[in-house]
Amino acid sequence: MFRFLLLTLIICTLSACNLAPSSLPQPTPLVTEVDPEEYALFSAMIDQNVTGYTLGESVVILEQSKPHIDSLEFALEGPFEPPEELVEAYRLRNDQPYTLGQSFTLKQAYKLMPQSEYDGLLGTGSAGWEDFETKYPQAGGVFLFSRAGLNAARDEALVSIGYYCGSLCTKGGVFLMVKEDGVWKVKQELVTWEA
User: Fold this and answer.
1) Cα-flanking dihedrals φ and ψ of residue 167, to 5°?
2) Which of 20, 53, 84, 112 has its CA 20 to 30 A from that of 46?
3) What DSSP state is assigned to residue 183?
4) If we measure between CA atoms, which residue out of 174, 190, 180 comes closest to residue 153?
5) Coil, strand or helix at 155
């Protein structure tokens, strides 16, 4: 009888321990899919033409995100100090390239360009650009996006955008974006590049 009670007490104690919430810190959840809010942000950046270049009647977007961590680090060396929450969110979401889907809501038609096609475009210089113009006659270039580092309120973000429009035609930067009245807008350009 004593063994039965002791065994019952041990089983109950172990069961109670398993039900108690852990006091250990919980790991940060992995981000495996592109957030719908990121698509809204990317779409707003294209619709507002933050690059300033002529876009054409349709848009081509690289189907793989570009982390651009170096661009963020360079931006952080400048005079701007974006909120640390956004910087950490950007780093977390840009741990690797992610595949973008057909979830953009643009005012114009768009196509996603596979990474392999983009690599071929860059590898062949001006001949590659002629191939691009033949395949995408209504587009002025290719957009590239990092993942967006969003704050908890989902009304501020850090994002890198690039626009490639020929062998000596490119522009991009790291932007601090803010969502006002349901619309994403540029709050500040942290760093830009152009060729």
Assistant:
1) -65, -30
2) 84
3) E
4) 180
5) coil
Are the CB atoms for 69 and 149 separated by under 8 Å? no
For 22-70, what is each residue's pLDDT tens digit?
Answer: 444 443 444 468 999 999 999 999 999 999 988 999 999 999 999 989 9
DSSP run (H or E) holding 108: none
Question: Please, what is the angle between helix 115-123 and helix 125-135, to 10°?
Answer: 130
Q: Residue 124 class from Cβ within 10 Å (0-12 exposed, 13-18 middle, 19+ buried)?
A: middle
* DSSP 8-state symbol, 25: P
In the predicted structure, residue 189 carries a pLDDT above the cut 70: yes
Cα–Cα distance, 117 to 166 (Å, whole number): 14
pLDDT in tens, 77-135: 988 899 999 999 999 999 999 999 999 999 999 999 999 999 887 766 667 788 899 99
Helices marked H in 32-169 — which ranges? 36-47, 69-76, 84-93, 115-123, 125-135
Alpha-carbon distance 69 to 160, whole Å? 9
Return d(Cα 88, Cα 182) in angstroms, integer: 24
Q: What does the block give as tokens for 3?
A: 């063994």
Which among 67, 42, 40 is positioned nearest to 143, based on CA atoms? 42
